[in-house]
Amino acid sequence: MVAGFFTAFDPELKITTKEGKVFDGQDDRIKALRTLPEIAVLTETLEENAMVQYKDRQAMAVIKGVEDNFRQLTQIDSILFGNGKFRLHDPDVSYAVMGIEMVSILGTGIRFVDPLSIYAPKRNVRINMTNPASSFNKDYLFSPGCVFAVNQQKYDSQYILTSLQFARTLFEYKTEVSAIELKLQPNVSSYNVKSKIKNILGDDFIVNNRYEQQADVFRMMEIEKLISYLFLTFILMIACFNVIGSLSMLILDKKDDVLTLRNLGANNKLITRIFLFEGWLISFFGALSGIILGLILCLIQQEFGIITLGDSGGTFLIDAYPVSVHATDVILVFVTVLLMGILSVWWPVRYLSKRIL
Questions:
Q1: For residue 13, what are the CA distances in angstroms to 65, 128, 191, 289?
Q2: Distance between CA 9 and CA 80 in Å, rounded?
Q3: What are the backbone angles phi and psi of residue 271, rounded to the nearest 5°?
Q4: Bridge partners of residue 162, in order along the sequence
Q5: How far is CA 239 from each of CA 13, 132, 235, 336, 340, rounded to the nearest angstrom?
Q6: Angle at 162 between CA 142 and CA 127, to 5 degrees
Q7: Span 56-82, pLDDT tens digits
Q8: Are 81 and 130 a contacting pair, CB within 8 Å?
Q9: What does the buried/exposed string (b/e) look like for 55-70 if buried means 16 or more CB atoms within 10 Å of the residue's CB?
């Protein structure tokens, strides 16, 4: 679900330099990528921080200059709001397609009349303390009548899309870019293309897929998942005391039956194995029935969404709690329950068999 939000904004593959912020977009190795048949769209982008002012409001923003084919690179149209169209420039002016939260911060509205003032420090120039304004480049961006909403604060509250030429002029670059963004042909393996591009570019560049571009977000989700697993395993450990209590009462209740077994020739090892087997059966059928019940509940949730997020009033992007069932998770849970059950059975049976039986 989260990856779907990024799909509309992030490219399939993104090439950045290993050292520094920018690199030459006319490098021979970059030109070689344009001939690869696996690449459907290649666009140059330039990102840099700048100060944005609208009337009496100011904010720091990330100005991202993109080429005209950015619309074919991503599904930007699916996250646009407003009556206008996605435009970057015309012969006279450049346009600013802002994130929805940036619009709120600056108070511009979706379609603003006055232009945005963009300030960026001049490159390789020391600040003139007597006239600080002379140390900044200033330019203007106008409204295309639309904004985007990725539903991720990183983009919605910071990014402004505009033309690549505007960004290069503002930040005093010529052919430099901060990234090369790629869209691949349908039914092409991104893993294979990524390896092929790495071989062409060498060690001076980094090639990231969508998940690697958002590594922090997905790493946080994996940590949340791990913590949930550890927390529920701790609850399982506490629940195992029920099994210990049940086995203890069973051993006490069967003292007369144990005596009968001894008279029939059973030794201590056989008697202990009987109670161990009883405890393992409890753990096995408990794990099996729990897995089946859990899968049924997950499938019902996926289909009907019976567990809702409450009356959010539009705060959440979805109404029901999202569920995704993976075979590896099911196996991990099953093995964990069995392992905890075996350990919780083994010690009390061995201990009580010696003390009581």
A1: 17, 41, 10, 44
A2: 11
A3: -65, -40
A4: 65
A5: 47, 68, 6, 13, 10
A6: 90
A7: 999 999 999 999 999 899 888 888 999
A8: no
A9: eeeebebbbbbbbeeb
Alpha carbon distance 184, 11 (integer Å): 9
> Which amino acid is present at 168?
R
Q: How far apart are CA 180 and CA 14, in angstroms?
A: 6
Structure letter (DSSP) for residue 38:
T
* Residue-level length of the chain: 357
Identify the burial level of 165 via C-beta atoms within 10 angstroms of its C-beta, where 0-12 means exposed, 13-18 middle and 19 or more buried.
middle
* CB 349, CB 245: distance < 8 Å: no
- Asked if 19 contacts 30 with a C-beta cutoff of 8 angstroms, the reply is no
Find, among 157, 151, 154, 153, the residue nearest to 314 by Cα. 151
CA distance 15 to 39: 13
**Amino acid found at 342:** I
Could you tell me where the DSSP H helices lie in the chain?
Answer: 2-7, 28-33, 70-73, 100-106, 153-156, 164-171, 190-201, 210-213, 215-253, 255-263, 268-304, 327-355
Q: What does the alpha-carbon distance between residue 90 and residue 67 come to, in Å, rounded to a whole number? A: 13
Q: Rounded CA gap, 63 and 165, in Å?
A: 12
Residue 165 is predicted with a pLDDT of 95
Q: C-alpha angle with apex 43: 37 to 46, nearest 5 degrees? A: 150
What is the CB-side half-sphere exposure of residue 135 using CA atoms within 13 A?
Answer: 10
- How far is the C-alpha of 304 from the C-alpha of 300, rounded, in Å? 6
pLDDT, tens digit, 9 for 90 and up, residues 283-330: 899 899 999 999 999 999 988 888 887 765 556 667 888 888 999 999
Distance CA 233, CA 319 (A): 28
Answer whether 206's CB lies under 8 Å from 17's CB.
yes
Do 35 and 8 contact (CB within 8 A), yes or no? no
Query: How is residue 9 annotated by DSSP?
Result: T
